[in-house]
Amino acid sequence: MQTVGLIHTLEQCLNRMQTVGLIHTLEQCLNRMQTVGLIHSLEQCLNRMQTVGLIHTLEQCLNRMQTVGLIHTLEQCLNRMQTVGLIHTLEQCLNRMQTVGLIHTLEQCLNRMQTVGLIHTLEWCLWMIHPAVPFSYISVQPKPFHRASVQSDGDLILA
């Protein structure tokens, strides 16, 4: 994958899809999120793109953009990233972008879903990066899940 610039929040990344130009793949969009720090405001970014209730998934977030962008659904975005067949889930899509090393970014966290188990929401993925994020705003608590930790040598292990 190639990193193209530094967009520090998901909101900035998604905004580029509707105000500056089309980002043709989710991979390209997520690559722009590689920063030197953690993503602390993902929930706030997602909430800004909705009218009522909680947006639990990126799919819901992207679907909010259907009136102002060319990628109307996450499925359309994911389908641009594959050669044959259909990519039905975000997990399938992001598993195509496997990385190694520490989990410093949302992209890397999502890429490792197959390794550490199924992550049903981006909030849960964010918690994997930054456990201090509260879950009080989630109506249904996540199912028991193996926490991932990083050894000093950079290897991902399961707690």
Can you describe what's shown?
Helices cover 36% and strands 4% of the residues. Mean pLDDT is 39; it is low at 1-159. The chain has one domain (10-158). 26% of the residues are buried. A hairpin with a 5-residue loop joins β1 and β2. It has helices at 10-20, 26-31, 42-47, 58-63, 74-79, 90-94, 106-111, 113-116, 122-129, and strands at residues 148-150, 156-158. It has 9 helices and 2 strands; from the N terminus they run αααααααααββ. It is mainly alpha-helical. A two-stranded antiparallel sheet has the order 1-2.
Which features does this protein show?
159 residues, mainly alpha, two-stranded antiparallel ribbon, 4% strand, globular, disordered N terminus, disordered C terminus
- Reading the helices and strands in chain order gives HHHHHHHHHEE
- Strand arrangement, major sheet: 1-2
* Integer count of domains: 1
Strand content: under 5%
The gyration radius over C-alpha positions equals 15 Å
Helix content: 25-40%
* Main beta-sheet annotation: 2 strands, antiparallel
**Low-confidence sequence ranges:** 1-159
Termini gap: 29 Å
